[in-house]
Design a protein that fits this description.
Number of strands: 7
Protein name: HotDog ACOT-type domain-containing protein
Organism: Ilex paraguariensis
Structural class: alpha+beta
Family: Belongs to the acyl coenzyme A hydrolase family.
Pfam families: 4HBT (PF03061)
Distance between the termini: 39 Å
Oligomer: single chain
Number of helices: 4
Helix content: 25-40%
Keywords: Hydrolase, Repeat, Transit peptide
């Protein structure tokens, strides 16, 4: 069963033409007519909700980008308590070895997560300026297998921070693993990892006036990554 919607156009003006209204006569026709009207109202409501969501997301992106533009265009006037996302990046690379493979001959996922965690920890450490404290693994994507001999590159960044709780500020780290083949001039994402850290209370107590800096994007792509991850984290918290 399918429902179709047709429109009428004036063959001379090519503009919308009026359509004669239907007048249901039987009980069955009345039922079908009301169902069609309900579907129309539902579609209209969904369009309005989608527009509100898109407008809200656009406002969030613009708000995130506003401060980033100051860093890029007028760095001397930028907020000293903020930092560009790209300035929090770290990277390392390795050649995958046979001892790292699993029973299926692929590189063991636990090994990849271990290396990603080490880089995430280092990123949080250099960002905060003191010993970080691991809280949780937010999310991991295994997008494609990694083979023995693959040249694997890990890139990390502080995606965003949360400072509402001064006793436990949050540092959200993104790590992306790429299988890189220089001879083919190709690089594919194999894994994405998201970790959350805070600062060890003991280390924090030794540094009076400590404050986690806010991370701001310089590009729309970075802003979208931040918004997408924040939304996913909020949804995850609601489920818990």
């Amino acid at each position: 069963m399918a429902n179709f919607i047709f429109v009428a156009r004036d063959y001379k003006t090519r503009k919308a033409a009026p359509v004669n209204r239907l007048s249901p006569e039987t009980e069955q026709e009345e039922l079908l007519y009301n169902e069609a009207a309900a579907r129309h109202n539902l579609r209209k409501t969904k369009r309005e909700e989608r527009k509100e969501i898109e407008n809200g997301e656009l406002n969030r992106l613009q708000a995130l980008l506003a401060e980033g533009r100051v860093f890029c265009d007028m760095p001397a006037l930028a907020d000293r308590d903020s930092i560009l996302l790209r300035d929090t990046r770290l990277e390392n690379s390795l050649i995958c070895q046979p001892q790292q493979r699993n029973i299926y001959g692929r590189i063991f996922g636990g090994f990849l997560m271990h290396r990603a965690f080490e880089l995430a920890f280092s990123t949080a450490y250099t960002f905060a300026g003191m010993m970080p404290c691991f809280l949780e693994v937010d999310h991991v994507d295994f997008l494609r297998p990694v083979d023995v001999g693959d040249f694997l590159r890990f890139t990390s960044c502080v995606l965003y921070t949360e400072s509402e709780d001064l006793d436990q500020p949050l540092i959200n780290i993104e790590v992306v693993a790429h299988v890189t083949r220089p001879e083919l001039r190709s690089s594919e994402v194999s894994n994405t990892f998201y970790f959350t850290f805070t600062v060890c209370p003991k280390a924090k107590s030794m540094k009076n006036g400590f404050r986690i800096r806010k991370v701001v994007p310089a590009t729309e792509e970075e802003a979208r990554r931040i918004v997408d991850r924040m939304d996913a984290k909020a949804l995850q918290s609601m489920k818990i």
